[in-house]
Design a protein that fits this description.
Enzyme class: hydrolase
CATH topology: Rossmann fold
Function: Hydrolysis of 6-phosphogluconolactone to 6-phosphogluconate.
Structural class: alpha/beta
Keywords: Hydrolase
Strand content: 15-25%
Pfam families: Glucosamine_iso (PF01182)
Bound molecules: 6-phosphogluconic acid
Shape: globular
Order of helices and strands: EHEHEEHEHEHEEHEHHE
GO molecular function, one term: 6-phosphogluconolactonase activity
Number of domains: 1
Length: 230
């Protein structure tokens, strides 16, 4: 398992290169299977990348886009990852893509696990591209080290695809792909900006308990392309 570091001078440079790499992989996926899948993370980091990506030429009508995790809020709430993806990514050329969101009508994410799992069948697996972010505590997707659900989320022996997570150090209940579901991806990217995230990653790479820094579980089990800029 390896971490291949791609370090850029600026986020503009990162976003331009990254957007083209994603499109190249999705194009290869469409050529091979007729459709391609792109699973993205929320948060602040990917906004400018999504904007750049939305403008790149591709037969977006053959691309299915979903989320690695969702905050369990209404889709018009500013905390909603779906809202951010609709605003930043499903625009311009990428407006033609098919979006498979995670938020359902259920009040509690626990009650929506079955629906999300059924909806996943709408996406080609293994995912062609998975873009992960990382928090300062080493969480990725919504696999939070502080949550009671972290052992279930990282359990590679379990058949679970999604898990409802209640972080204690971050707001909102979440729905998250589990570790084995995240790993079911052909190309895994870790998208980080800033020195402090790089320091957190360095700490994760040095090794230790995966439950204390869940990003370690991904790094220990997959080949990961780091896309980093200051
Ligand atoms: O919904 C979320 O919060 C995420 O998908 C999460 O895993 C995110 O990628 C990290 O928390 C980094 O978030 P920032 O990019 O905002 O730092």
């Amino acid at each position: 398992m390896s971490l291949n570091e791609n370090n850029f001078q600026s986020t503009d440079e990162l976003n331009a290169t990254f957007a083209q790499s994603i499109v190249d992989i999705l194009t290869a996926g469409i050529n091979e299977n007729g459709r391609a899948s792109l699973v993205v993370s929320g948060g602040r980091t990917p906004k400018a990348l999504f904007n750049a990506l939305s403008k790149v030429a591709l037969d977006w009508s053959k691309v299915d886009i979903s989320l690695a995790d969702e905050r369990w809020v209404e889709t018009d709430d500013d905390a909603s990852n779906e809202k951010m993806v609709r605003r930043e990514l499903l625009q311009n050329k990428a407006a033609a893509a098919n979006f498979v969101g995670l938020k359902t009508e259920h009040d509690n994410a626990k009650d929506a696990v079955e629906t999300c799992t059924a909806n996943l069948a709408k996406l080609h697996t293994p995912f062609d591209v998975l873009i992960l972010g990382m928090g300062e505590d080493g969480h990725t997707a919504s696999l939070f080290p502080c949550s009671e659900q972290i052992h279930q989320g990282l359990d590679q022996g379990a058949r679970r695809t999604y898990i409802a997570v209640q972080p204690t150090t971050a707001p909102n209940q979440r729905m998250s792909l589990t570790l084995p579901a995240l790993l079911n991806s052909k190309n895994i990217f870790l998208h980080l900006t800033g020195d402090s995230k790089k320091q957190v990653l360095d700490k994760a790479v040095k090794g230790g308990d995966e439950h204390e820094m869940p990003i370690r579980a991904v790094l220990n089990s997959a080949d990961v392309e780091l896309m980093w800029a200051p």
